Amino acid sequence: GQVIPERRFVEAINREPYQYQTGDFPTEWEAWIRKKRNDPPTIEEILKNENYREEMKQKIKDVTEKEKLLQAKEYKEGLVAEPVQTRVKGHASAPYYGKSEPSQDPTSTASTFQPGSWMPPGSSSARNK
């Protein structure tokens, strides 16, 4: 009466079993081990699929390069506006937003308060008040 499920596993040859990670085995073997397919893969099938993946990577690379060239051409001809490059120095809620150094004056941004800092007399950034 009781059906014992088939156990599928791979014996580690060059490494300890705990050193294997996802992606170390070909996808076809992983599918067989996890019972997503009934028959184990053949060497020819694995090589064919690997070649297909490499071809797809190369095609994707080619298409990406073509797109970059086309986009650069469109920017040059003025057909498309180039994206604006913004440089963010800080966040508005930061105590020193847009400032490179603390000042003697207190600052308040959003719901925060930053007291002024003490500057020694005669320093280049100290102001006479």
Could you explain how this protein is built, in words?
By secondary structure, this protein is mainly alpha-helical. Among the domains are: 34 residues, no CATH class; 39 residues. 33% of the residues lie in helices and 5% in strands. The protein is built from 2 helices and 2 strands, in the order ααββ. Strands 1-2 form a two-stranded antiparallel sheet. The longest helix is centred in the middle third of the chain and has 35 residues. It is elongated and about 90 Å long. The N and C termini lie far apart (96 Å).
What is the H/E order? Answer: HHEE
- Rg over alpha carbons: 31 Å
**Helix share, percent:** 25-40%
Number of beta-strand segments: 2
Helix segment tally: 2
Q: Name the average pLDDT.
A: 78
Largest sheet: 2 strands, antiparallel
Quote the distance from N terminus to C terminus: 96 Å
Summarize the structure.
The protein has 129 residues and is mainly alpha-helical.
SSE order and pairing:
Blueprint: H1 27-33, H2 43-77, E1 107-109, E2 112-114
Antiparallel strand pairs: 1-2
Family: Belongs to the complex I NDUFA12 subunit family.
Protein name: NDUF2 factor
GO cellular component, one term: mitochondrion
How would you describe this structure in keywords?
129 residues, mainly alpha, 2 strands
